[in-house]
Amino acid sequence: EDKVVQSPLSLVVHEGDTVTLNCSYEVTNFRSLLWYKQEKKAPTFLFMLTSSGIEKKSGRLSSILDKKELSSILNITATQTGDSAIYLCAVKGAQKLVFGQGTRLTINP
Amino acid sequence: GAVVSQHPSRVICKSGTSVKIECRSLDFQATTMFWYRQFPKQSLMLMATSNEGSKATYEQGVEKDKFLINHASLTLSTLTVTSAHPEDSSFYICSATSEWRIGSLGNQPQHFGDGTRLSIL
Question: Which of A24, A25, A58, B58 has its CA 20 to 30 A from that of A88?
Answer without folding.
Answer: B58
